[in-house]
Design goal:
There is one protein chain. By secondary structure, the protein is mostly helical. The chain contains 7 helices and no strands. Helix content is 76%, strand content 0%. The termini are far apart.
Length: 132
């Protein structure tokens, strides 16, 4: 009874520091899985995998172009539709840009060389529209 009384009823601060009653393990040590392969034995395999992932990432744009070239050789009419669509989209974007800047060549060169000024102007317009 006296032993139980000391472990459950804490009388001094010194006794609190000495107890380990708050360090209860969540799992038994024999239930925790341990890795079978160490990093030192598998670093070559990991290096090869990372190398190939980097190579595939770098060549993804080239492979996309190759895919488009192969598909155009098999489906030329679809490619012509794609070309017309992209051309119309480009013309539409240019018309919008020319409409914004007008005929002023100076404003176009400023927007080309300093895109941050254009973005700042867009933010100001957005703030004005929110304020209104």
């Amino acid at each position: 009874v006296q032993k139980n009384e000391k472990s459950y009823i804490i009388s001094t601060k010194e006794y609190i520091a000495k107890t380990d009653s708050f360090k209860i393990p969540l799992f038994k040590h024999n239930c925790i899985p341990h890795p079978e392969l160490a990093l030192s034995t598998t670093w070559i395999q990991l290096g090869v995998i990372i190398f190939f992932l980097i190579i595939f990432g770098l060549f993804s744009g080239l492979l996309t172009q190759l895919k488009i070239l192969v598909s155009t050789s098999f489906y030329p009419d679809t490619e012509m539709k794609r070309i017309h669509y992209l051309h119309a989209k480009l013309l539409k974007k240019r018309a919008k840009l020319q409409e914004k800047t007008g005929k002023n060549i100076f404003a176009r060169t400023i927007n080309f060389w300093f895109p941050i000024l254009k973005a700042r102007e867009a933010v100001r317009k957005k703030e004005r529209s929110v304020a209104e």
